[in-house]
Amino acid sequence: MLKKTAMLAIGLTAGVSLSAQAGTLEDVQKRGVVSCGVSTGLAGFSQKDEKGQWSGMDVDVCRAVAAAVFGDDTKVQYKPLTAKERFTALQSGEVDILSRNTTWTQSRDTSLGLNFVGVNYYDGQGFMVSKKLGVKSALELDGATVCIQAGTTTELNLADYFRANGLKYTAITFDTSDQTRAAFESGRCDVLTSDQSQLYALRIGLQKPDEAIVLPEVISKEPLGPAVRQGDDVWFNIAKWSLAAMIEAESLGITSKNAADLVASGTPDQKRFLGVEGDFGKNMGISNDWAKNITLKVGNYGESFERNVGQGSPLKIARGLNAQWNQGGILYSWPIR
C-alpha cells in the first residue's frame, strides 16, 4: 500500500509539473503574441516612438522570444509598467515576460515567485548633477537633495553609500523616470541617481543635456535582465535560451546579414546554432531554427547593443563590461550543443 501510495504521489507530482510547464507556451501560442512588460519609456532600452513602434535592448529580448516561438519578432504586445507595477504584473500573469531594466538580486529571485533568465546589460548605479553645482565627485554631495525612482534598488544603494561615507541627503521619490528627470531639470533636486545607463538615457532627454554631467563613481553592481514566473520550466528555458542565443550568435560571428548563408557554409558550431544539426529547438517545444530566426529578425547581441545604446545611437555608450568575454568584457553565453 505504501509503495502504491508513493507511486501515486510521484505521478500526481509529475502531472502537476508537466501541467505547469506547459502553461505559458500554450497560452502564448493560442493568443498569438508574447505579452511583454517594459518600462514607461527609457531611451535605448524600451521606448515608443511617434508611430507607436517600440525599440531598445529590453524590447529586443521580447522580440527574440517571439521570433523563437513564432518565427516572427513582431508578435509582441508591449505593456508599459512603472517600477512599482512590474513584479505584480508578472506574478499575476498580466505579462509573460518582464524585460524592463530590472536588477537581478537574491531577494527578488527567491521571494517574488520569479526567475531571472540571464543578464542583458551589466550596469552600476551612479549620479547625475548640473555642472552649475560645481561638483566633481559623489563624495562632495553631503546635504544634497536627491531624486529617486520608487520601487528600485537605487533607494537602498543610496542609503548604504551615504551612510558608509558619513554623508547626509534628502530623498524625493517619483513613480517614473520621466518624473525624476523633470524634477531634476526644474531644480527641485541637486542630484538624480539611477543606473548609469538610465542616467545617460535621461540626460539626452533634457532641454540642455550638455549642462548635466554623470559623476565618475559607480556605487553598486546592477546586473539587469528579463524575468519570468517560477514553476514553468519550458517557458523559462525558451526565454533563457532566446537571450543566450543573441549573445552566442555574436560570439560565433553570426549576424543578421550572414545567418542565412551560414546555414550551408558554416562551421559545425554555427550549423548547430542555426538548427541544421541537432534537436535543440524540439527540446524546448519549438522549431529547430529558433536561434536562426532570432538572429535574422533581431540580430545578435552586438547588433542590438550598437543600434540601441552604442555608437549607432544617441547614447553612444561604450561596450565596457558588456563586451564579449574574449574582448575585454564579461559577456558570456552557454554553448548550444
From TrEMBL:
Q: Which organism is it from?
A: Parathalassolituus penaei
- Domain named Solute-binding protein family 3/N-terminal is located at 33-262
What the entry lists under CDD domains is as follows: PBP2_BztA
Q: Name the Pfam families on file.
A: SBP_bac_3
What InterPro entries does UniProt report for this protein, alphabetically?
A: Bact_solute-bind_prot3, Solute-binding_3/MltF_N
Q: Signal sequence span per UniProt? A: 1-22
Which biological process, per GO, is one annotated for this protein? amino acid transport
Keyword Transferase set for record: no
Full protein name: Amino acid ABC transporter substrate-binding protein
Q: Which family does it belong to?
A: Belongs to the bacterial solute-binding protein 3 family.
What are the entry keywords? Answer: Signal, Transport
